[in-house]
Task: structure prediction
Amino acid sequence: MKRKILIYSVSFALLTTIFQATPAFAKPPVTQVQIDETKVEINKTVDQIDDLETKVQQLDDRIIIGMEKSKQLSDDIKAQQGQIVKTNAEIETARKDLETNKDYYSERLRTMQAQGKQSIITYAEFIVSSKDFSQLLTRSTAVMSILESNTDIMKALAEKEATLKGSEQKLEKELGKLKNSQDELAAEKKQIVADKQEITTVLAKSKDTLKQKQSQLAYQQTEKDAQDKARQEAEEKARQEAQERESARQVVSERSSQQAPESPSQPEQNTPVNNPSISDAPQETVSNSGDVDEMIAYAKRFLGVPYVWGGTTPNGFDCSGFTQYVFRSIGISLPRVSRDQQDVGTRISPYNVQKGDLVFRGDPAHHVAIYIGGGKVIHAPQTGDVVKIATYNPGKYTTAARVLH
Result:
């Protein structure tokens, strides 16, 4: 009997030693405050990224509009140069006509002079040398006719030449203005590209910062979960050990008094309860046309196509070039740029969209996307990116348009 009492006494001592052993953590504890601070930093970084992406889209839009203007200027310059070539040809023709008429009337004068008694005579001598009144009248009339005709024709030709030269100067001046506008547009595009590169660099750094903060948050959350779990396990272990110590005391007491120890009762195990997660997925909207699903399926064929300034084909799209190309597949013609597409169809709230609606950022718009349902859009975001599906946040969009009714 003493031996059994000794065994229980030793068991009790061992349990007490285990209970008194405090677990040591090699790493400093992570607090909820630290986690909350990291979440705030992540939200700020996300907002910064959103602002930077908006600026990039605005610059992309300015470049697209500039490319359209540049194309129009090139067409105008080509037409102006053609007009200048035509005017120069007319000036040359007028000069030749002037010289031809000068030669013609000079030859007529020399012929009339050759009929006189002297080799060279003036108009007056030619008239005075008439033999009779009839000849005098005839010669006077002929000379006056020649002089008058010569003067009128020469004057008309000279005026035509002067007019053509004036037109040429005007055309050259207009051409100079067009070329200046083209140079200014090229300089503006160069500056926009430089600004965009600077913003893109900041954007890339912000995205790296976001990844670091997200990794930091994941690490903090993992550490805190492990600490919470360890604390819960320690508390549970302490509770069980307390029960076991109490049972051991009771056994020792009973064995001492009754010499018939009973086996210590096993403590009940608490099973943690996992609460089911609640889905926050947005409610699916109803399609507004039989063509919508066909159009969206067609749009998805171009996922991964690179963003290209001025791109309107599957070789590369900009945002409005993509929507224009996709809508054309179901027989709907949209304007070229996003600010003009914004005026097509019926303008609606970004919070009341259906599949197939166009959604815009900015007013006038600098970016356009297609809402495809399920809280998603498909679009060509910006340079350096590709056609992709993204989460739709109506608070980030300014207007929407329903083209399919």
The first strand starts at residue 312 and ends at 313. The longest helix spans residues 133-258. The beta strands are 312-313, 316-317, 346-348, 358-361, 367-373, 376-379, 388-391, 399-402.
